[in-house]
Amino acid sequence: MRGGPTAIGLPGGQLRGRQREREALDRLLASARAADGAVLVVYGEPGVGKTALVQYAVQSAHGFRVTQALGVEGEMELPFAALQQMCASFIEFTEHLPQPQREALAVAFGLSEGPAASPFFVGLAVLGLMAEAAAERPLLCVVDDAQWLDRASARALTFVARRLLAERIALVLATRDRGDALAGLPELHVEPLGRRDARALLESVLPAWHGTNHSPDNIFIHLPDHDALMLVDIVNPGWPPVCQSNLTEDVPGFIAAPDTALTYPWKHFIGGHMGRLGNRNDVATHRQYMADISDSSRKALDTVDPTPYFIKYGENPLAAVREYLDAITAAAAAPVIDKYAGVLAAADIFTASTVFHVMQSIRLDLGYGSQVHP
Ligand SMILES: Nc1ncnc2c1ncn2[C@@H]1O[C@H](COP(=O)(O)OP(=O)(O)OP(=O)(O)O)[C@@H](O)[C@H]1O
Ligand SMILES: [Mg+2]
Asked: What residue ranges of the chain have pLDDT lower than 50?
């Protein structure tokens, strides 16, 4: 029997695959439960799934007190910003700390004035606070986006991480880049998802996608290392869609595709045909071209009067419909052809067939202007 990809609940989705990584996080939580304090640095490329994994840990930490902090790019210059966030929910335990640590923490967190806090005392204070917080039940501390930790917080957390011994504490740091500060701590490298899970994930986030061309899993292929996006048979750089919207099966999906394409960061566009690479302008021009066709089609549907055709053909309503649709197409295509002459090659040749296709989709998919049925 083939096992399907396993999935667990995530806010807003399902965690796919990641057996090895889940086991590592499960082990970390089990250690903390057994009073064997543990730390794990989860690192990997942007978007590879680190936050999804640390959120898996948060959801698996039954019976734990959980505290979370976030490195924030704009706060990297604010000493102790992230540490303060992490300790906020158990700051009341400060009163159990020895005085020098209490004072150091108060200065670090801006609760009192004084000479710059000694990193050593701050580190000890945080360790003490966490130990107090873990006295009632185990503690999971999650620090996401640790690549943006302010230096002071990173140093204090590393200090703590190296001293978690017989504590019921688990510390998870997720980072794009381990940097010097986190070097030497136990690590979990997050690799890109396997092909099957990646495909299942793609299908799950595009549930309404009908497949504008060959198959739903090969539409948007983003290659961040090459700064490139591949989107076959949608945008033909330098040309309008050929025939009827490049013969797509799904006109609303075809019209929406450039918006999706432009949400990814890339510079080079591979459209699949027509022998030249594209760029973001090509995709934006195509998007505008399709929007102009939609607008123009609606206008023509609103303004071209069917009556004369039905009068002309009397007993032959299908001939009337045919001529009426041709008239709408011609009226809608004319301003678009004018606008894109010299912008998209062969706009004069291909625009009418795409106009017809889009106009029919507006009538039949969107129910606009469909008073006369073909
Ligand atoms: N295994 C997975 N199963 C389901 N969804 C996932 C999985 N991994 C990642 N995702 C989804 O992919 C998207 C990117 O993942 P995530 O935010 O976790 O990446 P990241 O590594 O934290 O990125 P960044 O470096 O930008 O913080 C999110 O929407 C996330 O829910
Ligand atoms: Mg993240």
From this structure: 1-9, 11-12, 207-218
